[in-house]
Amino acid sequence: MSESQSNQTSGKQEKRVAAGETGLHRRMEQSARRIVAQDVELFGVVTCGADGHPQLAMLLSELKAEITTRLKELRVTERIVDKLPDGQLPLAHYRFSVALSGCMNGCIGPEMKSFGVAVASVPSVPTVADAACSECFACVDACRRGALVIRDGSFRHNIDLCDHCSDCVRACTTGKLVSLRQGFKIFIGGRGGRYHQPGFELFKMADRETLFKALEASVEYFLTNAIGQESFGALLNREGPSPIYQRIYQG
Questions:
Q1: Given strand 96-101, what is the order of strands in its sheet?
Q2: Higher confidence at residue 134 or residue 52?
Q3: Rounded to the nearest 5 degrees, what angle is found at the Cα of 121, between the Cα atoms of 116 and 127?
Q4: Domains of the chain
Q5: Could you tell me the pTM of the whole model?
Q6: Mean pLDDT of 183-212
Q7: Which of 73, 110, 124, 250 could form a disulfide with 99 if both were Cys (CB 3.0 to 4.6 A apart)?
Q8: Regarding predicted confidence, which is higher, 148 or 10?
């Protein structure tokens, strides 16, 4: 398009607006939002920890797809754009970041994301009187949290210290220690960068349904209550995580 043609087009738009065509700006804005929705999403979902574990890889893949779909349904990108001052481009740190870790090692730092998830499991609690337990102390040595003790003929498991990593289950030489149930540890409001901070531990062990309730509650609370360009972590520092629990349990 030549410069003269461009000027003519611009002049026509100005005349239409001056003539009172109030719908022009609205249609231009809708067009811009369609472009934003197609070209970039202001959220990201990353995974790790599935190498060599087909079932775990499938679990993380399914979760990633479901969470991505849910964030689109919640219109995260459009609603973040709505919060920005007119004319300001959305930058990387406005993104709502989600991390799914296949184990408690958390190589991608789920505790440092807006919403972080790590696969966790609760071990069974055997007794050393059972012939299947050899009292080899392999499980005790494997637990880096000091949550397991074998003393005076009894096996003690401190659930408050346990971080549900399953290291003790993998270390057991007799197969007596097993995972009773699998779930998800959930973190909210973590952030990296200049004002980095680990997120709040929302749940130490949650099921799939609670995970998605927590995701929706977190997104809605953040997009509704953050002031200006306030991060989710800063909002939680100001208000605490209690409103998230309320949204989960009270709808």
A1: 43-48, 96-101, 115-123, 179-188, 200-206
A2: 134
A3: 155
A4: 1-39 (no CATH), 42-124+178-250 (3.30.413.10)
A5: 0.75
A6: 92
A7: 110
A8: 148
Tokens of 42: 């202001």
CA 43 vs CA 95, 115, 226, 240: distances in Å: 5, 11, 16, 22
Q: Are 70 and 98 in contact (CB under 8 A)?
A: no
Angle at 101 between CA 179 and CA 210, to 5 degrees: 70
Q: pLDDT band for 15, please (50, 70, 90 cuts).
A: low
pLDDT band at residue 228 using 50, 70 and 90 as cut-offs: confident
Residue 152, φ and ψ in degrees, nearest 5? 55, 40
Where does residue 52 fall: left (phi above 0), alpha (psi -120 to 50 degrees), or beta otherwise? left
Q: What are the tokens at 40?
A: 């970039």
Question: What is the residue type of 55?
Answer: Q
Angle at 88 between CA 82 and CA 90, to 5 degrees: 70
Place of tokens 């100005």: 14
Six-digit token string for 13 = 């738009």
Alpha helices in 40-177 (DSSP H): 54-73, 76-83, 138-142, 167-171
Mean pLDDT of the region 119-135: 69
Locate 129 and state its tokens: 């009187």
Whole-angstrom distance, CA of residue 92 vs CA of residue 56: 29
pLDDT of 145 over the 70 cut? yes
Tokens linked to 229: 């360009």
Structure tokens, 72: 């689109």
Residue entry with tokens 């949204």: 247
Percent of the chain residues past pLDDT 90, beyond the cut: 37
13's CB contacts (< 8 A; 6+ apart) are: 24
